[in-house]
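Notes from hallway chat w/ T.B., transcribed later so I don't forget. T.B. wanted the structure written out for a chain they're using in a teaching module, and asked if we could keep both sequence and structure tokens in one place. Agreed to drop them here.
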Amino acid sequence: MPAGSGARSRVVVDVLRDGVLYREPGDRPGAGLSRVGKGGFRQWIRRTEARLQGIDPDTGRKASPSAELGKRIRILRKIAGLSQQQLADGLGLSRSAIAFWETGREGGIQKHLAVLARILGVEAEALLTGMADEKIPVTLSPDENDLVMLYRRLDPAGKINAQKWIERQTRNVALPAESGDTS
């Protein structure tokens, strides 16, 4: 863990319940992510007087809050099984307004946040920040747990690619209950 005033910066990839996944700028592509507990990360911040820059040092791009919100809306809409048109109908808007939001343009989204969050089945704060305070009980098999842990290590673009790949793999696969097979 870097220490002192000469410490290198860190790019936070994901914040997990029990720690932080990060990489250091300049790490070679495909290099593994580093993980540290939240307490250790806080100590590093205090020790190095780290500051949030909001810019990825490798790409030089600043993450747009509108783009991040748009991604969350799109992902939550798909999880809810809604088309853009169905979501638009629920909000009393046009489909193009939903497409507008999902591509990172704000366009009056603030006045619709409460209803949007309700339709998508999340708290407004979770919609805005991407963080949920709810504890959702779930039982996972060891394989499912491994997949979740690997998924959490991905950056946002990797998560979207993983979701797309899984959707392609399952698109034509019928579940036993759907096909009438109960064995």
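Follow-up for T.B.: Residues 1-6, 55-60 have pLDDT under 50 and may be disordered. Might be a good example for the class.
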